């Protein structure tokens, strides 16, 4: 992508649009001929102008009349990428402050920042539609659509998923989409159904299935224990073979344990049972990556009372669905992000990569790429 310099010129918004008249006329004709969305182009210009104004607010000149802040932009139909740099000595907080100002004044959601060759980069997300498709292989599965296309979760590099979201914000839809991808590649998934509803009709697709019921409390703990024991058995086999990762042996396939509505399960355990349960879960989190035994947990909020901070930090893939509170974002990402006003969107963090995806609506779990 070609970056364009945002110049330090203090002029009005009217003059900005006046300078863009040739581009506007060309784009208008193109949209009529090709039946493209002209309103999307107008929104793009508005955002670029808002970014220009924010850049000017951060501009200063030194004693030699040189600007102390440089910014550039590049764009396509789905996003605007910003590259910027403070010439004088700066710190990460200054770049975060600039990114937050851009987010506040444009009204658009922005990615986290990253640094490369002395410049800070972040992305302004435009509206885009989710792809009605999924992909999966022996180390990854798509979990939504980003501005770059299908976004994939590599569980070898980023083991274990923690997914949160308030009631009605799309956790179940997200999981149906994710599981469709896993089942399409014939991956083995074990399930503890926290609400006894979401997966009951498709329980035959799971290797093992237990519904969360007070009477089944022992079965839930036994399922987690069995998963843990099989993981340790594979670990011992790998040690005998002299391999450090399951992907080194083509006969090994990943195995997933889905614990839906983790909070409701923890609440019905007594203190001793909770200690045993936490010990097994911690074992899976610490050892599962190398063996290919991957944990997927969903809950409304990642409260430390039920899932400790140390345990939460070892989920290298975290996602927050739909509209959420600042406290939830803080617990999951340790920084503030702009909440969504509608369902079908999610903030995610893979390692330190923070971004957003759109989730296609799947009414049920499927092994094919057709929308249900």
UniProtKB/TrEMBL annotation:
Record flagged with keyword Membrane: no
Binding positions (ATP): 165-172
Keyword set, alphabetical order: ATP-binding, Nucleotide-binding
Sample GO molecular function, one term: DNA binding
FtsK domain span: 144-330
UniProt cross-references to PROSITE patterns, sorted A to Z: FTSK
SUPFAM superfamilies registered for this protein in UniProt: P-loop containing nucleoside triphosphate hydrolases
Protein name, as recorded: FtsK domain-containing protein
Species of origin: Coprobacillus cateniformis
């Amino acid at each position: 992508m070609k970056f364009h310099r945002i110049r330090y010129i203090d002029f009005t918004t009217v003059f900005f649009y006046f300078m863009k008249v040739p581009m506007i006329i060309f784009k208008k004709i193109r949209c009529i001929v090709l039946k493209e969305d002209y309103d999307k182009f107008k929104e793009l210009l508005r955002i670029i102008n808002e970014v220009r104004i924010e850049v000017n607010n951060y501009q200063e000149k030194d004693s030699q009349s040189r600007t102390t802040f440089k910014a550039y932009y590049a764009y396509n139909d789905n996003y605007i990428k910003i590259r910027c740099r403070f010439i004088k000595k700066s710190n990460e907080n200054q770049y975060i402050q600039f990114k937050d100002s851009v987010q506040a004044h444009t009204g658009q959601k922005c990615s986290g920042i990253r640094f490369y060759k002395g410049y800070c980069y972040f992305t302004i997300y435009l509206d885009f539609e989710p792809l009605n498709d999924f992909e999966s292989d022996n180390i990854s599965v798509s979990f939504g659509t980003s501005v770059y296309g299908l976004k994939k979760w590599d569980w070898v590099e980023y083991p274990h998923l923690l997914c949160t979201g308030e009631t009605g914000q799309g956790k179940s839809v997200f999981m149906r989409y994710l599981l469709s991808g896993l089942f399409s590649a014939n991956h083995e998934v074990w399930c503890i159904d926290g609400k006894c509803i979401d997966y009951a009709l498709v329980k035959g697709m799971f290797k093992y299935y237990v519904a969360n019921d007070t009477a089944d409390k022992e079965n839930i703990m036994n399922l987690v224990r069995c998963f843990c024991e099989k993981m340790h058995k594979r670990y011992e086999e790998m040690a005998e073979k002299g391999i450090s990762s399951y992907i080194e042996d083509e006969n090994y396939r990943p195995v997933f344990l889905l614990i839906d509505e983790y909070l409701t399960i923890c609440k019905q355990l007594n203190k001793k049972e909770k200690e045993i349960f936490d010990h097994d879960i911690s074992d899976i989190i610490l050892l599962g990556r190398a063996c290919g035994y991957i944990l997927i947990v969903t809950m409304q909020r990642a409260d430390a009372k039920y899932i400790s901070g140390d345990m939460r930090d070892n989920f290298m893939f975290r996602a927050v669905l739909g509209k959420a509170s600042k406290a939830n974002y803080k617990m999951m990402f340790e920084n503030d992000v702009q909440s969504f006003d509608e369902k079908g969107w999610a903030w995610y963090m893979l390692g330190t990569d923070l971004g957003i995806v759109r989730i296609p609506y799947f009414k049920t779990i499927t092994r094919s790429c057709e929308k249900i």
